[in-house]
Write a structure and sequence with these properties.
With about 210 residues, this protein is α/β, with parallel strands linked by helices. The chain has helices spanning about 10-20, 35-40, 45-65, 95-105, 145-155, 180-185, 190-195, and strands spanning about 5, 25, 70-85, 85-90, 110-120, 125-140, 175. The chain is about 35% helix and about 30% strand.
């Protein structure tokens, strides 16, 4: 039986998979995302940036598995918000989160999520597929006191784009155009297609 390995510590991604019938083995990657992005050629397209970050995470985790799982599929993801042509990752500080919300409140932006799927046998990568999903997010305009309260929770500090769709941030999203699971962090329709490309039957992963 194929083992699904999630190369992420994201509780949101884990929750999406569990709700969709998959109980993955979780292995956290320790990739330096800034270093990976900096090493890409100047002018690399935004969708390619998130794909390469996802691939780096998946490959780093794959390199640690050895022969632990004779038949496995490793899935890595990376999400960033594209605002005015600039990719935004996690704000990390309240100050940065506040600046970003000032830029995106009442506007629309594209949430890009790169996905990398590696098929492994006996510790070796035998097939690989990768792609990016893009979802347009239409943001509301939080009142100043609402934004203060939201930032004070700490939730937006550790998520791409300074918001969540499935948490407190959902109160400030008017609507989306695209795949909701991709906004949460892992796009089920895209992962299904990538699994097919590496010859993995999705239904065999259900528990």
């Amino acid at each position: 039986m194929t083992t699904f390995v999630l190369a992420s510590q994201s509780p949101a991604r884990l929750g999406v998979l569990r709700n969709a019938g998959v109980e993955p083995v979780v292995r956290v990657s320790h990739v330096d995302e800034n270093a990976v992005a900096a090493a890409l050629p100047a002018g690399t397209a935004p969708d390619r940036v998130v794909i390469e970050l996802a691939r780096a995470k998946a490959r780093e985790v794959a390199s640690t598995l050895g022969a632990e799982f004779p038949d496995a599929v490793v899935v890595g993801c990376d999400s960033m918000l594209l605002v005015d042509g600039i990719l935004q990752g996690k704000p990390l500080t309240p100050e940065v989160a506040r600046v970003r919300w000032a830029e995106m409140a009442g506007r629309s932006a594209d949430l890009l999520t790169g996905h990398s799927v590696l098929r492994m046998r006996d510790g070796e990568i035998v097939a690989e597929a990768a792609d990016c999903s893009s979802t347009t997010v239409h943001f509301a305009k939080p009142e100043p006191e609402e934004l203060d309260a939201y930032i004070a929770t700490g939730e937006p500090l550790q998520v791409a784009g300074s918001f969540t769709l499935d948490g407190l941030g959902g109160w400030f999203v008017d609507r989306i155009e695209g795949d909701p699971s991709s906004v949460i962090g892992i796009g089920l329709p895209l992962v299904r297609r990538l699994l097919t490309e590496v010859d993995v039957d999705l239904t065999q992963l259900w528990v």
